[in-house]
Design goal:
221 residues; 19% strand; binds zinc ion; 9 helices; binds D-xylitol-5-phosphate
């Protein structure tokens, strides 16, 4: 079953509580929480204090760390209420496996993410250890961008690598997911879809979530 993760980045911050209620009422599976540090990506978004408040709501928090030196922040985001914590391979470098171990030691599920121009082969060493792989389908840093077509092939490639190695992991995609593009990534093997602007612009958020959930799965199954 495909999971849906609305991204808080596209919410109305003046009404955050009711925006999160909207996400819960839509039946979405998790709330995607984008953390940006102004270094790994140009913008700065929100940190641990807002997560602490948001995580009081009844929906699991999927924290996407678009930050340099993620190892320094893992523990505090776990304490603030994260269920999933995803770090970028490009930001963690040789410390990637240590980050994953740290996320697990904090009691969270661990994700690793790659930017559009980072190859799937860059994370092959850690596929055994992670719970989730987040394929960025846009350059990280802001919402409302168009999905980059070649990233869909990376989803397909990752799925085939996982299958060959007999690994079952969540494949999450993030960036430019909407009613028109979602089927491209689900057919390629994505099982968790992040949607920011498309979710918050949807007239009927529940219908939007249901529609994403029923996107076609890969044909070879
Ligand atoms: C972008 C963030 C995304 C963003 C997606 O760097 O990681 O989670 O909110 O926004 P949309 O769905 O509008 O592309
Ligand atoms: Zn994100």
């Amino acid at each position: 079953m495909i999971k849906v993760a609305p991204s808080m980045l596209a919410a109305d911050y003046l009404n955050l509580g009711s925006e999160i209620d909207k996400v819960i009422a839509s039946g979405a599976d998790v709330l995607h929480y984008d953390v940006m540090d102004g270094t790994f990506v140009p913008a700065i978004s929100f940190g641990q204090e807002i997560l602490k408040m948001a995580s009081k709501k009844d929906i699991p928090m999927d924290v996407h760390l678009m930050i340099q030196n993620p190892e320094k922040q893992i523990e505090s985001f776990a304490r603030a209420g994260a269920k999933y914590i995803t770090v970028h391979a490009e930001a963690a470098g040789f410390g990637l496996k240590d980050c994953i171990d740290k996320i697990h030691a904090c009691g969270c599920l661990a994700g690793v993410s790659v930017k559009p121009f980072t190859m799937v082969s860059a994370i092959e060493d850690v596929l055994d250890s992670v719970d989730m792989i987040l394929i960025m389908t846009v350059e990280p840093g802001k919402g409302g961008q168009k999905m980059i077509p070649f990233t869909v092939e990376k989803v397909r490639e990752l799925r085939s690598v996982l299958k060959t190695r007999g690994l079952r992991k969540i494949i999450e995609v993030d960036g430019g997911v909407n009613m028109e593009t979602a089927h491209l990534v689900t057919e390629a093997g994505a099982d968790m879809l992040v949607a920011g602007s498309a979710f918050f612009k949807a007239e009927d958020p529940r219908a939007f979530v249901d529609a994403l959930r029923s996107m076609p799965e890969p044909r070879d199954e």
